[in-house]
Design brief:
This protein has a domain at 39-100. The protein is built from 1 helix and 5 strands. The chain has one helix at 23-32, and strands spanning 36-48, 54-71, 75-80, 85-89, 95-100.
Length: 102
């Protein structure tokens, strides 16, 4: 009888899954930090159809902000994550969306 060579599986020392986030760290960031994501929909292309209707497409721009000073449809003042103050003044009102990250 000939002995068959049995291959042993190699074990990788690096885990396949990254470590889970610490719940306490996430909770602490939510309490101590304030950060929002602001999306402003600037006026983009305007199409006028044959029947006279206008179709306006917005050109969205996203900002990551830490402090909101003034937020209105025509006037926005805020400080971003790089600690730069932005002031946006518009003639016509624009739409915006704000989401809280932390």
């Amino acid at each position: 009888m000939a002995k068959e060579k049995v291959e042993t599986p190699q074990i990788d020392m690096v885990p396949d899954n990254p470590p889970k986030r610490n719940r306490f760290v996430e909770w602490w960031k939510k309490i101590t930090r304030e950060q929002w994501m602001l999306t402003v929909f600037y006026p983009g292309q305007t199409q006028v159809l044959a029947d006279g209707t206008r179709i306006e497409q917005g050109a969205p721009e996203t900002y990551h902000i830490t402090k909101i000073i003034k937020l209105d449809h025509k006037h926005m003042i805020f400080i971003d994550t790089d600690k730069i103050r932005h002031e946006i003044k518009l003639i016509s009102p624009v739409g915006y969306e704000i989401k809280k990250i932390y």
